Structure to design on (841 residues):
């Protein structure tokens, strides 16, 4: 039966080519627009580290006085100072902890005539690698000992390894970063968190090419790439003096494997704040936060509001396309009243006719879905040409591909309900009368 | 004469299709009105004046590999060399540019003892910046050479360094903070009193987080060193931008091979980069509007053709009874006009509804009433254009059709 209906549907679609083409085009455009924007939303609102996003926490403290331009939200600052960050790092109250900031400086190969070029760096501490599950290709990450020894070492990315060492195992070799020689101890496999949750100064930037111990970077005066908020001294802090300044400029992440210990960690932060108030370093009552990865992204509105606006716009567009399809389908089905009348008179039940018309609607949906997919691929290609930082990530993945067809067929079937039902109301006798 | 009554009674018999068409026009009208309004807002925002001589400003940003001793002399020497280049009128080393993204901000106070700052502003550093950026001085005077201090001296905390205590503010700051002439008045920046010696035309901030403070900017007599985002800005003779950029970057590298040029560009590129995503969004909105109008027009064509083919006999009868081709044509055009009018009326209500949601969720302003008549005219025209082909086909139905079955 289904096969027969399918054949009937195909034949009917072929008969009124223009109308069919209009319907398919409308569905395709609607689907194309929706899938493009939904894919972008899907990409930018995804979980950057699904395996442990609920075990990684971002501690925030309130070290400021009220004498600063940013104290408005009642929220602690988005970053942490050197003193507080180092204290929480060394207290080792969580399973793992890493303190970090971003950097950018020219990279060279000693003794090579390769032009120096800029590379983005992350100045961080040993736990960064196991905590964020950074995969190693060659060598190994560094240990806490090397952090303490302020070792002149670096872990580099695959791309940098390609560029400098043609992809060979480069451990033991030397790179020159900002004029200082660092020994490569490890090369990581391609790795990228998007959004780059661990440092939201540039949330959709590419991953760093060079990882250097935080302490070493301070010795080398590694140029920083990221914001800093200072209070009480009016921007008169040099970058070299950031360790002792009233400035927040670092990100601290902790991993807490046992959910029951999260409250303990928060209590520990509160105690620390109280102690700091007591010694006169903090001026406001303890105000601590401990957000996990997704809460942190949500708090920072990482998904751009334009993306939401685009989704709504696409949904509105899709609605217009569907209303349009309903109207056209109605016209098409009603035009066949006499054919339906004959079939009814020959014994087809209303349910039979209804099923057949719905299959026809489904065919339009399927064709529209395929065309819509092509349009979505084109749309995503256009998105990737856009200047927004997240744009380069916009690719259709398998779930979105399946969703495209589900939405296309589902929506067209729903759109077909009314026309099919109306067409079924045909009284056989009335239609048979006319010549 | 318009045969509105017979049209309405015919439409009653095609209630569902007519309603669908009205609904489609209404949705299109509502979305297009709001989308065009959003585009207008983006375009207005993208045209925000920066307050500088945009056409003649170029920047070259160097970065040093390793540290450079005697940086002060280096900067002076470089600036002197840049000023000698053909085509260069003025040159400075600045910490930031309007709409250049990276910004140096702080809170300022009018009273030293009040705890909370009165305004959050950005501070432009660089010797002779008023000339190099082409900023218009409205009142007071520019800084004198002896008023300048080096940034790294100021931050060193050395006792022998004389910290500047004069400032030039924008007209916006003057109006907001002093309600009258600000010359000679004092504000506190980083706890230090600063006397206002000049007022300039509004200069935009590098990064506008709060649009009501777009022009919360001031200039301080501070000389920058290379590094931490410092950039050489030059005001050039008309048409000399490309040549100056080329010559300047070559010269900078020749003076010191350990100096890498991180960026060289015209100011127009700075602006384009800052507003790139707004431009993209405006383009997207325009694209969706065009697509919506096309889909709606195709819908009108499709349904119009259907109606015409359904009513061939009826049209034939009317023709046989003496209706001219013109009458038939006008019949379908009037029908479309009526449907479009209903759609537009519903669409306006919807448009305001969508606008309210946008106002609540995205802090969008209220939709100006002028958009509604414009939207209405656009949809009427679209409807008439779309229905023309089916209506013309209807007008060609011969009277003899009346004698045929349908």
């Amino acid at each position: 039966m289904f096969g027969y209906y399918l054949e009937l549907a195909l034949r009917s679609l072929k008969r009124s080519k223009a109308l069919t083409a209009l319907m398919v085009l409308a569905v395709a455009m609607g689907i194309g627009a929706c899938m493009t924007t939904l894919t972008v939303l899907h990409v930018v609102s995804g979980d950057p580290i699904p395996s442990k996003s609920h075990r990684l926490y971002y501690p925030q403290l309130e070290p400021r006085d009220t004498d600063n331009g940013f104290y408005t939200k009642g929220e602690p600052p988005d970053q942490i100072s050197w003193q507080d960050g180092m204290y929480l790092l060394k207290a080792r109250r969580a399973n793992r902890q890493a303190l970090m900031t971003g950097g950018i400086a020219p990279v060279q190969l000693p003794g090579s005539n390769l032009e120096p070029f800029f590379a983005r760096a992350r100045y961080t501490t040993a736990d960064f690698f196991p905590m964020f599950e950074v995969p190693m290709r060659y060598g190994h990450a560094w240990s806490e000992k090397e952090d303490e020894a302020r070792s002149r070492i670096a872990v580099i990315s695959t791309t940098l390894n390609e560029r400098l060492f043609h992809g060979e195992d480069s451990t033991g070799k030397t790179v020159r970063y900002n004029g200082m020689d660092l020994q490569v101890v490890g090369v990581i496999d391609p790795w990228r968190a998007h959004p780059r949750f661990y440092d939201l100064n540039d949330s959709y930037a590419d991953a760093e090419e060079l990882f250097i111990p935080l302490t070493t970077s301070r010795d080398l005066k590694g140029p920083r790439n990221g914001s800093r908020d200072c209070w009480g001294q009016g921007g008169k802090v040099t970058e070299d003096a950031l360790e002792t300044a009233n400035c927040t400029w670092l990100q601290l992440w902790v991993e807490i494997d046992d959910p029951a210990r999260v409250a303990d960690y928060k209590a520990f932060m509160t105690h620390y704040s109280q102690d700091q108030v007591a010694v006169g370093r903090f001026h406001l009552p303890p105000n601590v936060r401990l957000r996990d990865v997704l809460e942190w992204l949500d708090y920072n509105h990482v998904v751009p509001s334009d993306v939401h606006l685009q989704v709504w716009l696409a949904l509105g567009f899709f609605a217009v396309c569907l209303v349009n399809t309903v109207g056209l389908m109605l016209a098409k089905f009603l035009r066949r009243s006499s054919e339906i009348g004959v079939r009814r008179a020959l014994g087809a039940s209303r349910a039979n006719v209804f099923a057949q018309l719905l299959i026809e609607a489904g065919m339009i949906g399927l064709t529209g879905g395929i065309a819509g997919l092509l349009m979505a691929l084109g749309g995503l290609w256009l998105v990737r040409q856009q200047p927004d930082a997240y744009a380069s990530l916009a690719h259709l993945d398998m779930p979105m591909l399946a969703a495209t067809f589900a939405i296309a067929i589902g929506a067209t079937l729903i759109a077909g309900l009314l026309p099919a039902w109306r067409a079924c109301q045909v009284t056989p006798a009335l239609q048979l009368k006319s010549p | 004469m318009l045969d509105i009554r017979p049209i309405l009674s015919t439409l009653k018999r095609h209630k569902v299709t007519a309603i669908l068409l009205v609904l489609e026009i209404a949705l299109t009208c509502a979305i297009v009105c709001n989308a065009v309004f959003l585009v207008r807002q983006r375009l207005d925002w993208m045209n925000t004046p920066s307050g500088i001589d945009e056409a003649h400003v170029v920047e070259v940003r160097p970065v040093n590999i390793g540290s450079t001793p005697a940086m002060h002399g280096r900067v002076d020497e470089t600036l002197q060399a840049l000023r000698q280049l053909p085509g260069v009128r003025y040159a400075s080393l600045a910490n930031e540019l309007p709409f250049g993204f990276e910004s140096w901000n702080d809170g300022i106070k009018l009273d030293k003892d009040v705890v909370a700052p009165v305004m959050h502003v950005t501070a432009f550093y660089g010797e002779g910046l008023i000339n190099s950026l082409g900023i218009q001085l409205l009142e007071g005077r520019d800084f004198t050479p002896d008023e300048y201090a080096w940034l790294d001296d100021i931050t060193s905390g050395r006792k022998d360094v004389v910290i500047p205590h004069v400032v030039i503010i924008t007209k916006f700051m003057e109006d907001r903070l002093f309600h009258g002439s600000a010359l000679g008045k004092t504000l506190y920046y980083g706890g230090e009193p600063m006397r206002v010696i000049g007022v300039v035309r509004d200069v935009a901030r590098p990064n506008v987080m709060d649009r009501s403070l777009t022009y919360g900017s001031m200039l301080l007599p501070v000389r920058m060193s290379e590094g931490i985002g410092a950039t050489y800005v030059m005001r050039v003779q008309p048409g000399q931008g490309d040549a100056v950029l080329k010559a300047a970057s070559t010269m900078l590298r020749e003076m010191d091979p350990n100096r890498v040029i991180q960026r060289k560009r015209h100011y127009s590129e700075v602006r384009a980069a800052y507003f790139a995503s707004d431009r993209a969004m405006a383009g997207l909105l325009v694209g969706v509007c065009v697509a919506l109008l096309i889909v709606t027009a195709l819908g009108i064509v499709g349904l119009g053709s259907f109606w015409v083919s359904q009513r061939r006999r009826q049209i034939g009868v009317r023709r046989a009874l003496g209706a001219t081709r013109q009458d038939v044509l006008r019949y379908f055009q009037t029908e479309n006009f009526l449907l479009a009018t209903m759609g537009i009326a519903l669409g306006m209500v919807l448009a305001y509804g969508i606008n309210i949601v946008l106002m609540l969720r995205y802090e969008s302003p209220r939709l100006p009433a002028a958009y509604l008549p414009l939207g209405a005219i656009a949809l009427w025209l679209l409807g008439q254009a779309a229905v023309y082909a089916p209506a013309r086909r209807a007008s060609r139905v011969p009277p003899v059709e009346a004698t045929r079955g349908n």
